[in-house]
Amino acid sequence: MLSKARGKRFQLILIKPSHYDADGYVVQWLRSTMPSNSLAAVYSLALGAATRQVLGPDLPIDVVAIDETNTRVRPRDIVKRIASNGGLGLIGFVGVQSNEFPRTLDLARRFRADGVQVMIGGFHVSGCLAMLKETQADIKVAQELGVSIFAGEAEEGLEEVLQDAANGELQAASLVP
User: Fold this and answer.
1) 3 pLDDT above the threshold of 50
2) Which domain holds residue 92?
3) Is 4 contained in some domain?
4) What pTM was estimated for this model as a whole?
5) How much is the CA Rg of the chain, to the nearest whole Å?
6) pLDDT greater than 70 at residue 10
7) 16-44: average pLDDT
């Protein structure tokens, strides 16, 4: 059962990462022409979990969505936000495609260095784990960093992931059939 966390608020920061261009710069636009459907769907599911108080009545959930294709991700500010709300939180990289995985790993390294829990989900991890016999090197790197890998549909496992993260027991992998 979740411990009482009076005055604390669980921070769920959902990030749809961008990717690097040929020169190594993060691709960003002043305005993106198409919003991320994955980010919108997971954001909606997370708001539903917050409304249902899946972490209990004493631990509210704040949900923030960042689409890096049009918004700069500021890890230092995000880490401060989590710390100022009691230190409970999770960075969830959503809808991560193969070309976005290197950028995602770079961001994950920064968050993990500050002790923040991180989870990566999306097309890359789900596809690799479902179709390939061996775990890919980049996914192994993420796991070695202490990043949780989420494969499958968030509708089936998001609440359990939030509960695990709130208890500081984020699983190495959440594989949803």
Assistant:
1) no
2) 10-20+31-175
3) no
4) 0.91
5) 15
6) yes
7) 88
Give domain status of residue 48, yes or no. Answer: yes
Burial 76-95 (b: 16+ CB within 10 A, else e): eebbebbeebeebbbbbbbb
Looking up residue 119, the CATH number of its domain turns out to be: 3.40.50.2300
In a domain, 96, yes or no: yes
Task: Say if CB 38 and CB 94 are below 8 A apart.
Answer: yes
pLDDT at 49 over 60: yes
Contact 120, 150 (CB under 8 A): yes
